[in-house]
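Reopening this one. Same input as before:
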Amino acid sequence: MKILGIESSCDETAAAISEDGRTILSSIVSTQIEEHKKYGGVVPEIASRRHCENILDVVKRALSEANCTMNDIDAIAVTYAPGLIGALLVGVSFAKGLAMSTGKPLIPVHHIAGHIAANYIAHPDLEPPYLCLVASGGHSHIVEVESYTKFRVIGRTRDDAAGEAFDKTARVLGLSYPGGVQIDRLSKEGDPLAYKLPHPKAAGSEFDFSFSGLKTAVINTVHNAEQKGEEINKADMAASFQKTVADILADTTIKAARSLGYKTIAAAGGVSANSEIRSRLEEGCKKIGAKLYLPPLSLCGDNGAMIACQGYYDYLSGKRADESLNAIATLSLDSI
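Same output, byte for byte:
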C-alpha cells in the first residue's frame, strides 16, 4: 500500500511516498533555513508564502523519485496539527484538493505522532508499546506509545520547548539560526562544567519540563557580563547549556521509564539529533537495561516520510477526513 505524505507545519515543505508504512520510496524536503536565518527564527508569513510556492513541485518530485503517478497512490496523508496555522493551511488545502480531484482517501496526521513514526522507518523491529521522548523546536513531550495510533502524554513542557531554548540561547551568544546545530558544534570546543546553570522543575508533575528559567539564566549571565565589560566564553556556555538540557531531558525520560516499567525507549524530533542528548539517553538506557531507538539525523527534522508512515497506520485504524478538514495550531497528542 502506497501513501503520499505531505508536511508543512513550520518551515519545511516536504512530501514522501511510503510503502506499507516502513519502506520509503521517496522523500523530498524543501527547506527555508537560509531565508529565515537573517531573522534569527521562522517568520510565519514568509513560511506560508514559500509553502504555497514550493508544495506542487515537492509533491511532483516525490512522485517522480518513487517512479509513481497518482494512480499508484492509495491514500494521501497530511499534517493538520499542530504547527503554524498559515503553514498548516497550505498543506491541508493542497491535500484536500488533491484528494478530491483524484478520489483518494484523505488521512489527517498529528505532527508529533509523525515524529514518533520516524523510528518505524529506521527500525523495522520497533513495535509498541514503548516510551518516547519527543523534543523539537515547538514540543517537549514524554509519550507512552500504547499502539501505533494510541498515545498518552505523561510529561510535557510548561513553557518553552527545548528547541526554542536552544534557538534563543544561540541568538544571545551571537550564533546563527537554527541554534541547536550551532550550539552542538560549538559545545565540542567548550567545558560543560564551566557555568553552573539551573535545572528548573515543574511543580505538580515529576515528568513535566520547564526551560524558560534555564534560557533566562543564560541570557542574564551574558548580559551581566556585557554590562561589566567581561567576556563570556561562548564555547563554554554552549557546552554548559547543552549539558544541562541533555541532563534534564535524559534524566526525566529514564526516570519515567523506571517508574512505568518500560524497557524500550525511543527519541524523536529535531532536538533528538543533538549529540549530547543522544549520548545521555544511551548512558541512561544502559544503566536500566533498556533498549534505545534513535532516528537517523535525516529523519529527526520535519519530513514527509514520517507523515506517510504514520498515515499508513492511521489508515489501517480507519481514520479518514473529508473536505471539512481544517488546520489546528494547537492540539494535544492524547486528544486524537
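So the earlier flakiness isn't reproducible anymore. For the record, The beta strands are 2-7, 12-19, 23-31, 75-81, 106-110, 130-135, 140-145, 151-156, 264-268, 291-293.
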